Amino acid sequence: MSTQQAFQTEALTTMARACRKAARGPARATTAQKNRMLRDLADRLEAETEAILAANQRDLDAAPGYGLSAAMVDRLRLDAKRIKSIADAVRQVATLPDPVGAISDLRPQANGIQVGKMRIPLGVICMIYESRPNVTIDAAVLALKAGNGIIQRGGKEAFHSNHALAAQIGHALEAHGFEAAAVSLVPTTDRAAMNHLLTLEEEIDLVIPRGGEGLIRFVSRTSRIPVIKHYKGVCHLYVDADADLDQAVALLINGKTQRPGVCNALESLLVHADIADAFLPRALEALAEKGVEVRGCPRTQAFSDQVLAATDDDYHAEYLDLIIAVKVVDSYDAALDHIETYGSNHSEVICSQNRRTTERFLRDVDASAVLVNASSRFNDGGQLGLGCEIGISTTKLHAYGPMGLVSLTTEKFVVLGDGHTRD
Amino acid sequence: MSTQQAFQTEALTTMARACRKAARGPARATTAQKNRMLRDLADRLEAETEAILAANQRDLDAAPGYGLSAAMVDRLRLDAKRIKSIADAVRQVATLPDPVGAISDLRPQANGIQVGKMRIPLGVICMIYESRPNVTIDAAVLALKAGNGIIQRGGKEAFHSNHALAAQIGHALEAHGFEAAAVSLVPTTDRAAMNHLLTLEEEIDLVIPRGGEGLIRFVSRTSRIPVIKHYKGVCHLYVDADADLDQAVALLINGKTQRPGVCNALESLLVHADIADAFLPRALEALAEKGVEVRGCPRTQAFSDQVLAATDDDYHAEYLDLIIAVKVVDSYDAALDHIETYGSNHSEVICSQNRRTTERFLRDVDASAVLVNASSRFNDGGQLGLGCEIGISTTKLHAYGPMGLVSLTTEKFVVLGDGHTRD
C-alpha cells in the first residue's frame, strides 16, 4: 500500500468512526426533533436552489468527458422543479410514523419477568450509488428518520451535485443540535476507497448498493458487512385456467407497458393450456397494439405468425423493453416449476378466480411480492403503503421486497423484572 | 485444484442443490405433517439408542487421538439419559406454534389493493458446529419446523455420532413423505469442503456457525452467504444511585455465579458513586463468599484489600470464570459510555427504581437484550419465551439476540386485487 493509500484508508476509518459516534444523535432524538430538522432541510434545499444548480452544472459540463449517455445525463440533471420535488419528498418523510422506540409484545413469562421487543436503529448504513444526485438526499433522510447515521458514496459523475446537497444536510443537522458527521459523504470516488469502506465491519452495520447488477455483485462479493442485494426482476404473469380474461389482459398490458424500463415490469407470460385458445388471441392482439414484440413457445406461435421463437435465454431475460416471452403450460405445477427455474424472486402475479389455486400460489411462490389479480407494478414501497423506499431486497435475510423505514431498524429484547434471578 | 478436490466440490454443490429442492417439502407441509414427523423422530431416537451409543463410542474411542480435553469429551458423550432428553426436546418443538404461513397486517391501500405480509421459510440453512452431537438433532428439528432445509457440518470429533443421529432424521423424513435430502450432513469434515460450502450463495440462504470465536470469525470472513454472528458476551450490571440494594446484590450474584461459563453471565459491575459506600461493602462480601475474584478501579480497591487492580484488558475480558471487573462511575452517562466502549452488544442490566433512568437505559443501550432489575442470565431463548433457541445473534441484521423459530423465517409481501392496475 502506498503512503497516499494508507493516508486515505486511515481518513476513511476516522470518518466512519465519527459517523458512528454522531449517529447517537438521531438514535436518541425524539420524533419531533428529527422532523423539525427534516423540514428545515427541505426549506434549505429550496432556498439554496441556485447554489445547488451551479454545482450540478459543473457535473453536467464534465459529463461528456465521462462518456455519459443522454439517459444518464438526464438522471444527473437537476432543475428548480426537481429540487422542489426532492424537498417535498423530505417533507413527506417528516410526516411518516417513526418506527424507533416502539415496544411490541410485552408480556409476562412463566418465570415472572416481562419480555418484549423494542424497535431500534440499525446504527450506520453505507449507501453506494451511481449517478442520481437525489439519492444523496433521499437515502440520508430515510436513514436519519429511522435514527441511523449514513455514509454515502456516490458516483464521480455527480460529485459536485452530491457535495452541494450534502452541505445542506450538514447545515440542517447542526442547526438542530446534531453532529454533521451523522451524514458523511465519502470525499473520493475511487474504487480502493470503496473497497476499504466495505471492510469496516466494526463501524458500519449495513451496506446498500443501488445501481446496475455489476455494482451490486461487486459489492456483495467484496463486503465483510451485510449487503442488501437487489438483482434483476424477471417477473411473470401466470394466467390460470380460471382467470377472468378481461382482468388478465389488463394485468398483462399494465405490467408490460405502463413503464417497461423498471424492475417490477412483466417480462414473461405463462398461460394455462386450457385457456390458451380463449386468451392468447386477445392477449397477442393487445400486445401488438402497444407495439410489444412477442417471443413464444411453439404453442404460442400457433396463434400468430408475428410471434418469434423463444429461446431459453428469453425466459431468463430481463428485457426492460417492449418485449415479452410467452409460454403455454399444462398445469399450475408446470407454471410453478417455470417460475422457480426462471424467476428472480422479485414479483410474481397470478390471474385466477379459483380460491384454492390463488391460495396455493400465494404460499408456494418464492418472491418478495406475490400478487393475486393485481399488476406486478404494485411492488413498490409507495404503492405497498410503506410511504417511502430505500431499495428492494431480492434476498431473504433481514428484508425481502421494498424496504421502508422499518427495514432500517431492528429489534432488541427488553426485559422488565423486580429483582428476578434465574434458578 | 486437484481432481479429488474438484470431485468433492462438485459433490457438495450437488448435495446443496438436492437439499434446496427437498426443502420444498417442509416449506409446503402443513403444521400437522411436520409435527407428526418430529414426534416420529423422537420415538426413533429412543428406539435406536443402542445403535446411537455404539456410534458415539467410536467417537469417544478416537477422542484421545484428537487431544480433546475432559470437558470436550463430556460434551461429546451421549448416554441413554441424554438421548431421552434430546428426544424430549424434539417433542417440545412439535408443540411450538408454527410461524409459517401467518399473514399479518393485511389492509387496504389508497390504490385499492390489499397488502399484507406472509411469513415464509428462509430456504436452506447451513449449520457449522463443533463437538456437541445434540446440535445435529436440535438444529435440524428447528429448521424443519420452520419449513427449511438444512445442511449440517459438524466437527470431526463427533463424526460417527452425527451420522447415527442424522440417519434417524432421514428415516423419519422418508416415513412421512419428505425427501431425506432436506437434512444433509456433509460427509467430510475437511476445511476445503467448508470453504466451498460458504460460496454456494445460490443454494444456501443463511449460515449459522456455533462454536468458538475463532470459528465464527473465520466463517464470517470467508462466507459469501449471510452469517449470523455470535461473538463474546461482556455483560454489565449497572447499579444506579436509585437501586434497591437487596435486588442489586441478588442480580450480581445470580449473574456472576449461577453459571459463570456461559455468554450471558456477568463480567463487569458498574456502581454509581453516590451509592458506592452503601453497596460495595455488601457486594464485595457477597462475591467473596462465592469465591469470586474481584478486579477493581482504585475507588473499588478502597473498600477492600482483596480487590486486585483492574487493567483496561479486564474491562474487555469475557472471563467465563469466577472473576469480575468492578468500576465506580460518577454518573449514568459515565456508565453508558463504559458500556459502549467495553460492551459486546449481548446483555446489559440496570438495577434502579428510578423510572426515568431505567427508561433511558432501555432506549440508550445497544445490546441484544437490555434488562431492568432482572438477571443477565435471562437472555436465553427458553427464558425469553421463544420455546427454543438455534443461536444468539450479537449483530443487528435479520436477528438480534436469541433466535427462535421466527428467526428462521422471513416475510414476503402478498397483494390481493381484483384486476387492479397501476395508473
Give a written overview of the molecule.
Chains A, B: Its EC number is 1.2.1.41. Chains A, B: GO terms for molecular function: glutamate-5-semialdehyde dehydrogenase activity; NADP binding. Chains A, B: It comes from Acanthopleuribacter pedis. Chains A, B: It is found in: Cytoplasm. The structure is a homodimer of 423-residue chains. Chain A is an alpha/beta fold. Chain A folds into two domains: 239 residues, Aldehyde Dehydrogenase, Chain A, domain 1; 149 residues, Aldehyde Dehydrogenase, Chain A, domain 2 (3-Layer(aba) Sandwich), CATH 3.40.309.10. In chain A, 45% of the residues lie in helices and 21% in strands. Chain A is built from 16 helices and 16 strands. Chain A has a seven-stranded parallel beta sheet, with helices on both faces. A four-stranded parallel beta sheet of chain A has the order 5-4-3-6, sandwiched between helices. A three-stranded antiparallel beta sheet of chain A has the order 1-2-16, with no helix packed on it. The longest helix of chain A has 20 residues. Chain A starts with a helix and ends with a strand. The model of chain A has no long low-confidence stretch (mean pLDDT 95). β13 of chain A pairs parallel with β16 of chain B, so a sheet runs across the interface.
